[in-house]
Design goal:
The protein has 371 residues and is α/β, with parallel strands linked by helices. The protein has 11 helices and 10 strands.
């Protein structure tokens, strides 16, 4: 029975994964999964499927198929036009509902990687970060009761009774004493661990509206999902800026409404300071992501941004990603300046995001190099 259940469960999981693959672009562009995210799982809405079957009516009931019928008469005997456009009487039957299935974020990341053909990331500095890992390696005579090995303890007690001639097969009562107890032994090994930090920077000036922020929110969810599948430890830092920059929490990052001018260099300066103080390049894989509508205060500030990137951020980063979200109020000039000055640097990746339908292509552009 257990084997049959396992087989059915495996088939069901395959169906769910197939549905996700078929509708991945819709899930990404609509942001449905972001609202259903838990700590380690996400809820996937899967429509229920009812198998077609015949229903037999009462005997001598007449109707279409059993006697004469008028043209246009509904098969179920209802009045013509019922149920169209919300007309007709209120019904008493239950409607169709979507079934929500929890899928691990690791599985979701795997599907994303397969559909977008994303290469696995080769972490840098992996050998410099280590973590202790405990592993059970044998059996010992002493230890905490929480690690007592029941089977080995029982076997030692049985051997003692048999060797002493005190074992009675008719009354097989086995009571272990202190000398019979056996415990799991463990050893601690040092293993390399690759940690990563994502620094999200977003322009919150007046030209960045709710729609633009929603695009950033959706894309950051998928970026997080993929990078967490590549690294054992991932931290996120959030920076918002208009004419000045400040570090905030995740909720503030996506809900802040501000106005005013835009000085992108303020965000880059703060990012460089955070990396230098808390995330040294020798120990961390660094991923700065900046989202803006491409408007900046002046040409001088843009040149200052280029200088900060060249001297302080790029030397510490695996790659720097800039996503330009289209806005009716933004000039869109900044991405052109980045490509002009840093277009030949493989660590710099730019993407223009017109709307939600362009998010999937933007993710591919950001993560497709496997850096």
């Amino acid at each position: 029975m257990a084997l049959k259940i396992d087989q059915d469960h495996a088939r069901f999981r395959d169906i769910v994964k197939g549905r996700i693959r078929e509708n991945l672009k819709r899930y990404i562009s609509s942001g449905d999964l972001v609202a259903r995210q838990g700590k380690d799982t996400v809820s996937i809405p899967v429509p229920q499927i009812d198998l077609p079957r015949f229903r037999f009516g009462e005997k001598q009931s007449g109707g279409v198929g059993r006697g004469e019928g008028d043209q246009g008469q509904p098969v179920d005997g209802g009045e013509e036009g019922e149920g169209e456009g919300g007309k007709g009487k209120a019904g008493q039957d239950a409607g169709q509902h979507a079934l929500e299935v929890e899928v691990a974020l690791d599985e979701l990341a795997k599907i994303l990687g397969e559909e977008l053909a994303l290469p696995r990331i080769e972490p840098r500095g992996k050998a410099r970060i280590v973590a202790d890992k405990d592993k059970y390696t044998g059996i010992q005579r002493q230890g905490p009761e929480s690690l007592r090995h029941f089977r080995r303890t029982y076997r030692e007690a049985l051997k003692r009774l048999i060797s002493a001639g005190n074992y009675d097969p008719k009354r097989p009562a086995i009571v272990p004493i202190r000398e019979d107890r056996r415990y799991r032994g463990w050893s601690t090994s040092v293993q390399p661990v690759a940690n990563a930090v994502i620094v999200y920077m977003m322009d919150v000036s007046g030209s960045m509206g709710d729609e633009q922020k929603e695009i950033v929110r959706i894309e950051s969810f998928w970026l997080d999902t993929w990078l967490r599948s590549q690294y054992q430890g991932l931290e996120s830092v959030y920076v918002i800026h208009d004419a000045a920059a400040r570090e905030v929490d995740r909720d503030t990052f996506f809900r802040t409404r501000e106005s005013g001018g835009t000085m992108i260099s303020s965000a880059y300066k703060l990012c460089a300071e955070i990396l230098a103080k808390r995330y040294p390049a020798s120990e961390w894989n660094v991923y700065p992501f900046h989202f803006s509508d491409g408007d900046n205060w002046s040409v001088d500030d843009t040149l200052q941004c280029i200088e900060i990137l060249k001297t302080r951020i790029l030397p510490a980063a695996n790659m720097f990603c800039y996503g330009q979200v289209e806005s009716p109020y933004g000039s869109g000039q900044f991405v052109k300046d980045l490509r002009e000055h840093l277009g030949k640097d493989e660590r710099v990746v730019t993407s223009e995001i017109r709307d939600k339908d362009a998010i999937m292509g933007s993710i591919k552009e950001f993560l497709g190099k496997g850096r």
